[in-house]
Amino acid sequence: MSLLELDSVTLKFGGLTAVNDLSMSVEEGQVFALVGPNGAGKSTVFNLISRFYTPVTGSIRFDGKDVLKMAPHEVPNLGIARTFQNIELFHQATVLQNLLVGRHRHRKTNMIAQMLHLPSVRAEEREHRHAVEEVIDFLDLQPYRNSRIAGLPYGVRKVVELGRALASKPRLLLLDEPASGLSVEETQNMRWWIDDIRRHMGITVLMVEHDMGLVGKVCDRVLALADGAKLAEGTPAEVQSHPKVIEAYLGTNAVSKGGKVA
Ligand SMILES: Nc1ncnc2c1ncn2[C@@H]1O[C@H](COP(=O)(O)OP(=O)(O)OP(=O)(O)O)[C@@H](O)[C@H]1O
Ligand SMILES: [Mg+2]
C-alpha cells in the first residue's frame, strides 16, 4: 500500500479544470516531486491533500485512510505537514513561538490542567521544547531563536517554515517550492536538509519545485503536470527528457531539436 494515493482526482474552479483526472502514488520513504509550468495545478494538488478544496471526483487516501472524510483541521493529525508557496508564519511572533505552533497536534492536556499548571502540563511542555530544540539544532536556527519573523531575511523565514512543519514530526511533508527565492548557498543547504529529512528522520517528502537541478539531486520520482493533467512520470532524468514535458515548457521546436528541461 502506498503512503499517499490520489485516484482520478478532478477539481474545477468555475470553467477551469485546475486538476484533471490525476492519479498518483507516493511510497513511504520517497522524495517525490511535482513539476510543471506556472498554473499547472501543483499547489492546487497540495490544497486538495490538505482538504482546503474538495475534488469533484476521485479519492485521496493517506496510509489507507480516506482523507476526503476529514476536515482540514484533522489533516495534520494524520501526520501530514506542509509549507506554503508564500510562507505562512506569525510575523509578529518569534522563531521559537512559530516552531511551537508546529507542536499543536501533539497537545494532549486540556485547558483546566493548563490553568492549574499540573505536572502533566509541565511534562508535556518539556517534550514540546525538546522537539523544537532538535529542529533548531538541525536547521541551524540558533542565532534567530528569539528574533521576530518580521525582521528576518526571506531565506531564514523559509527555513523557519520548514522547521514549523518538522516540529510536528510528520510522516509526510509537503513542500511547496522549498528553494524558490533562495540563493545558491541556501538552495544547497535545502538540498542537504531534504536528504537528511528522508534518510535520518524517515519522513516521506512530496515537493513542488521549479529548480530541476535540485529535483534531480534529491528526488527519486517526478510527476510532470500541465493544465492539471499528468504529462509524464518517472525518474528525474526520464521526465526531464520526455518530449511532452519539453513541449510543455519550451514549445514544440525544442522537441525536434532534442531539448531537455533545465
Ligand atoms: N482559488 C482559486 N480560484 C480560482 N482559480 C484558481 C484558484 N487557485 C488556483 N487557481 C487556478 O488554477 C490553476 C492552477 O493553479 P496552481 O496555483 O495550482 O498552479 P501551480 O502549478 O502551483 O503554479 P505556480 O508554479 O505558478 O505556483 C491556475 O490557472 C490558477 O489560476
Ligand atoms: Mg504553485
From TrEMBL:
The answer to keyword Transport applying to this record is yes
Query: Which terms in the Gene Ontology molecular function aspect does this entry carry?
Result: ATP binding
UniProt xrefs under Gene3D superfamilies: P-loop containing nucleotide triphosphate hydrolases (3.40.50.300)
Q: What would be one Pfam family of this protein?
A: BCA_ABC_TP_C
User: Which keywords does the record carry?
Assistant: ATP-binding, Nucleotide-binding, Transport
Query: What InterPro entries does this protein map onto?
Result: AAA+_ATPase (IPR003593), ABC_AA/LPS_Transport (IPR051120), ABC_transporter-like_ATP-bd (IPR003439), BCA_ABC_TP_C (IPR032823), P-loop_NTPase (IPR027417)
What are the boundaries of the signal sequence?
none
Looking at the record's lineage, which domain of life comes first? Bacteria
Q: Where is the ABC transporter domain?
A: 4-252
Under which name does UniProt file this protein?
ABC transporter ATP-binding protein
Q: What is the lineage of its organism?
A: Bacteria, Pseudomonadati, Pseudomonadota, Alphaproteobacteria, Rhodobacterales
